[in-house]
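Action item from last week, closing it out:
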Amino acid sequence: MPEIFLATVGDKNLIVVEVNESGARPYFLKHEGVLKGTYVRLGATSVLASPEVVDDLRRSGRGVSFDEQSCIGFEATDARISEVCALLGERSGRTFTKTDLLNMKLLIQTGDGIRPTNAFALLCDDNPFSHACMRCGLFKTDRSVVIDRKEFGGSIIRQADEAYKFVLSHIRLGMELRGLYRKDVYELPEDALREAALNMAIHRNYTIQESVSFVSVYDGKVEFLSPGMLPWGIDMDKVLSGRSMARNKVVLSAFKSAGLIESFGTGIRKMNRLCADSGLPAPEIKEDGIDFVVTFFREAYVRDRPGGARDAPFGSAEERIVSLLGAGGMTAAALLRESGLTRGKVDYALASLVDRGIVTKDGGRKGAWKLTGRKV
């Protein structure tokens, strides 16, 4: 039975009806019926749930996930079983067998033999779900100008790997000097981008057939969009605090067994830490309509955002440049050598500091950079 009590909020007296959560989901307006009376929250508004969301709520109420259900019309042939076993063993170094796939619920033993689950089908190179793909695009500041576009289907493990490689091919690559050795370094942390691509494959809602996962590389940001709201029982506050809930339990288990992820629920904290270690802002993580979006900000974003960069906080690269110039003027080559930063980070830091009026350059192309004396 619901609990009914009075409460005072400001100068208003309210009657509060508190209904305990039930597993009989979805909750809906009885006079409208399930399909027309089920609503979900999107930000500050309530919107009618799509049939796919209703089905997702029904499964969550039964404690069943889409990926552990039998894949109708798809066969677990010996060739496919061998393919999935080999795929899972590539990174982990383990040898997987049909018995392992049964224990992981990728396969189901029935009276008629062995049946594949949807998770097994998603791992196959001939993945039968045409909407379960990743589209990647390279744009300028918005999608009105398309520079490059690719679509990756097949195994969702290989999709994540190809999406990750696509991003790396379209962001800046610099180098750092560590002692006598040179190390190539991308402007965004590789492991953070890899984590975002893997999270797209693991956590998207594969019952939504009208949308695909999308990776967008813009001049100032890289965006990973995954179809599907957060699973029932978890919200953005919990996600940002490090809590997680698996929508695709079998897929998650397969990725962990394959050595692709470390432990469940650590992805967002890992991405935040890697960006902080690189002197970059934390990625923006949000629900956007019925999609889940992770956005990394490239080094150029500070200069280009509304209001400019003059009052933005220093990044670690800018702090290093200001510190070096405090001892006197230096050429760009000297700054590159003494800072240990990549050329891209030095160029970005100098451009940002010029925008703020903090540094200036004497002479031509090989002139010396110096502080202007403006308070920082």
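Closing note: The chain has four domains: 3-66, 69-123, 134-298, 307-371.
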